[in-house]
Every structure is written in C-alpha cells, then in structure tokens.
Amino acid sequence: MFHCLSLFFYVLVLALSLTSAARDIATKAATIPRLETDPLTKLAELVVPYGYPLDVHNVETEDGFILTLLRIPHGRADVEAASSAKLRRSVGTAASRPVIFLQHGLLDSAAGFLVNGPGRSLAFLLADAGYDVWLGNVRGNTLSRSHAFLDASDARFWQWSYDEMAAYDLPAMMQYALRTSGAPSLRYVGHSQGTTVLLAALAGPTGEGRVPSQRASDSDAVAKGAPAVPAGVVERAVLLAPVAVAKHISSVPLLAMAAMGTDDMFTLMGLHEFLPSQELVAQLEGRLCVVQPYLCVSFLAALCGYNPSNLDITRLPLYLGYTPAGTSVQNMAHWAQAVRARAPNSMRCFDFGVNCASFSGRCNQRMYGTIEPPRYNLTAITTPLAVFTGTHDRLSTPLDLEYLRESLGPGVVKLSKNLEAYEHLDFIWGIDAKELLYDDVLRFLSGDDDDDDDDDDMGSTAANRGSSAAL
Ligand SMILES: *[C@@H]1O[C@H](CO)[C@@H](O)[C@H](O)[C@H]1NC(C)=O
C-alpha cells in the first residue's frame, strides 16, 4: 500500500516535471515560503551550529567539473587537541589524523552523512573518533553544478553517468584531500552509488575498449587499463548497501525506467538533468507533508525504499530539504541499463548502443571503439572491503550481492553483515544506524578485521585503540 502510493507520487512528479504545465504550478507555488536556497549555506546549517568546523574546497576535474569537497577536519570536543596537533605537524613530527572519505549515493549529496546530526550521523561520529573527515559531492548534485566552461543549462553539462564519476570525480577529490591533508592514503565509506563509483574506480576496465578516463588522458598507464584510483590510495573501504550489479533490483521507479529504452529515455526527458524542476519537487513534497505526513517522503525514498518504522518522522522536512540532490538523465539511464542487463551479469560502462545516428549522436564504436561497452574488472580490486547490506533492501539485493562477492577476488571482503529489516535509506537515515551499523563501521575502519573471532569487548577495545592512536 505504502509503496503503491510512493509510486503514484513518483509518477505524479515525473509527469509534472515533463509537462509545461509544471512551470505554471511552479510559478504559483513560488508564493509559498521556501527553505534557504543556497545549497552550501543550507548544508552548513547541518554542521556549524553544532560547533564542528566545516571547510569548503572546490576541486576541478580533468574534464572541467568543479566539485564541492567538504571537510570536517576534527570533532567538536578536540578543538584544542587539533590546534596542538597542527602545531606538532608544522614542526614536522607527530602523525596527523587519518583521512576518511565519505561518498554519497544516487540523488543524494554530502548531506546524507550529516542529516541525523551529531552523535547519530556517520560524519560526526568519525570526526569525534579522531578522523579528518572529507565529504565528496559528485557532478550534478546541488553542490557540484559548476563547470570550467559549461553552464548547467547547457545539455553538454549533463552528458555523463557514474562512469565519469569514477573516472574523474573520485580521483580528483581523493588526490585533493590527500595533498591538502598530507596523508599518504585514505579510508573510504560509500553509500549506494558511492560504492559503485569506488568499485569502478578501483577495478579499471578489462582491457577491451577505451573507458572514459582514457578519453581525457594519454598516459600509458591508463591506456593499459590501470584503475582510475591506484590500489594504494584507499587503505580499506566500507560499502554501505552496495550496488554493483543491479539485475535483481525491485525499486518500482527504476524498473519503470528500465522498461524504457535508453534512447526513449533521452527522447522523453532530454539529454539533460534528471527531474530538472527540483524546486517543483520540493514544493510538491512540502505540500504533501502538510496534507499527509506519512506520504511526505522524498523522491529519493520513493526510488530507493526506506523503512517507516526506522525513520524519524520529525526529521522528514529536513530530509526533504536535501533530496533529491540532482543527477543526469544519462546516469539514470545507466542505472536502468544495469537493471535491464541480461546474463552474464557484470558491471559495464554506459551502453550508447550501436546506432551512431541515435538521438544523442553517440554510439559505442565512437565512444569506446568497441561494439559492446567495456566491462569493469572487479577481480582486479585488492582493497580490503567491509560490506553491509539489508535484508529488505530493494536496490542492493542478496542475489546481486552474491554475484558481486563472486566477482571480487577471494579474501577481499573482510567483513560482511546483513542487517535485519534494513532498507536502502536506513543506512543513512535509520534511527538505530549508530548502534546496529556505525559502531561496526568504525571498528572496521580502525583496522580490526577479525570480526568472526571477536566478542564485543575485544571489538570496542580495538576501536578505542584506533581512535586514540588517531589523536
Ligand atoms: C582482471 O584483473 C585480474 C587481476 O589483475 C587479471 O588477472 C585479469 O586478467 C583481468 N581480467 C581481464 C578480463 O582483463
């Protein structure tokens, strides 16, 4: 019942955003008081009032996108500890804080790791545990909508999918974080698409066809199929609700999109931003909240599924202020392709098709030099991984996960947990995420892999050791 209504809401939003009538409504709705419009100011409201430092960095990718990279360099309690650590660093002795890089999911932004506030959201827990926390924002989200020479109103601004995020966005942001902090390597936590882009970046292509990173770079290393992010950069990574192979997804909106051909999607929605009228989506959601609080879920929730019993209803208006954060139609089409893919299942680059006279004017031969889109070689990944999934997750399903585990080399997944009744958004919004999930995440990040042999006491001792070593 609930999901049917979500679907109805989705169809409504989609229909409205696709018709010119939407513009009239948007004009009328403009009289309703709105939330703060500047996305960065709005995001800072999640951090600064609580006494945490927030640094804002702009990072330009090799293909010209200007991304907002956020940093919470230390926790609230250790302002003084931080300044003394800085002092030590400036005289070139003591170790600095370990860098942790957090990467959000589809239609989300860095806000996903912050919205539940200190003591609950992962970014704050990590900062308080002694990490130097960096939060990525991939191209096209509300915080990363600039380009060196393209305007977001230009269709060329939106011609990318998660392939380009893996090829350009992650390497640029990671290099920047390491250079700025002076750390030799980093640890990583990704949610949903944030896991996909890491896997793609670490895997590299199988060697057939030129992948996106090779289009920009003439370097021999990339041409030989080296990964976008070299193995040594990421020490260990946590995958929250990973989506790599998407064959068994049961998200209704995604299945609806998968039923459409890629060219149909481009023809229908244009080769632009997906759901361009974000303001309209926000308005509709806002009205829905007044009329029927239980229907007041974000578009992201309708797409991904969430667990009403593990959702703090009072925080819904807050969530709605930050999602959906925007992506391209091509990226949604790539997800639709992943859902549609026939066996053998694998992680593939965006399929432009073989028709070089297509709507988009692009085809596989032109883009990759091959008829089939290149595949990512997951076997090449050597980074130790912890994988957290939910039994009720409609995007990250057990069957797809089993395939992912088989595709990865033996011994790469060091820790794997399947959380009872967890849905896709519980990993970031869940009321009990700290107790059921983040404590384990911190333990793994601190370097304690031997989950099977551990009892809780040993685990927490190790975690304490990890954080005090960090300080
Ligand atoms: C994938 O990577 C592994 C390990 O580096 C390598 O042995 C294998 O040949 C690669 N497979 C393909 C199809 O490129």
TrEMBL record:
Signal peptide (UniProt feature, chain positions): 1-21
Keywords, comma-separated and alphabetical: Signal
Domain Partial AB-hydrolase lipase: 44-117
PANTHER family, per the entry: LYSOSOMAL ACID LIPASE-RELATED (PTHR11005)
Organism: Volvox africanus
Region ranges (Disordered): 449-471
InterPro entries xref list: AB_hydrolase_fold (IPR029058), AB_hydrolase_lipase (IPR006693)
Protein name: Partial AB-hydrolase lipase domain-containing protein
Segments of skewed composition (Polar residues): 461-471
Gene Ontology BP annotations: lipid metabolic process
Parts forming coiled coils: none
Domain of life: Eukaryota
SUPFAM superfamilies: alpha/beta-Hydrolases
Record field: compositional bias (Acidic residues): 449-458
